[in-house]
Amino acid sequence: xxxxxxxxxxxxxxxxxxxxELLAGYSIEVMPRTAEKVEDFRALLPRGTRVYIAHIDGTxxxxxxxxxxxxRAEGFEPMPHFPARSIPDRATLADMIARYRGEADVTxxxxxxxxxxxxxxxxxxxxQLLETxxxxxxxxxxxxxxxxxxxxxxxxxxxxxxxAALRWKQAFANRSDADFAIATxxxxxxxxxxxxxxxxxxxxxxxxxxxxxxGPAKLQTLIKFAIACGVGPSLSVLQKRARDVSKLLLPxxxxxxxxxxxxxxxxxxxKSIEAIHFFPLGGIKTxxxxxxxxxxxxxxxxx
Length: 303
Description:
It contains 11 helices and 11 strands. It is α/β, with parallel strands linked by helices.
């Protein structure tokens, strides 16, 4: 059985070849406070990399806007989050969009419900944001996906409600001029993702998948974020690994899941997985360096 996680000493040889195609065009997520620690993104990422800007509750909008302006100025494609439950009304949404577009030339967005329990105002679902029409003119819109389910939506542990929502979003995408994709929560094992991709296809959902993957990080860091983000069955795998004290300080690296996905795609499965989206839980530079070392020519940073 394929190992779910891979722990390696820093001097071990790189992962097997075959990852370059999968890593080509990868995206990465930042928060304003983590972006501030990066002296120059141009030293780390390929030119034009899509950089998601997380909307963390309590972070001033001005900070997120400043991050978008900086990324655009340095040659990257900012993609801010728009979490429905954190946006009080249409006027606020319209102002956010106008400022992102006017000051940072933002043309891409991730539309999601958001992580807070109670809506701040009129919106509680990403579909409501799409229905406003305020994102007309954007070239690319991503919506959220959950390969391991989402108990905030399907409390019985199934996926009936999330699948119905994705069917609605697929119908919306079919009518839209924007390019749509599904950006997912991070996962640690390939088979559940491949099975989920098959179920999407069976439901008529053809939006490509941009699969969330955790970048290199210590195990205890990974567990902390997995709990906070509501990661599904993978969490029990991490907890089992944590019982081995010798592995607590070793870095987790996503070689196994990405190699398994690359092998599956080579055999004709998982073709709907269009790109990898990194959550740099161990740091942006650490993640970017790993991608450069494992992705062949595609993610060589600009100089």
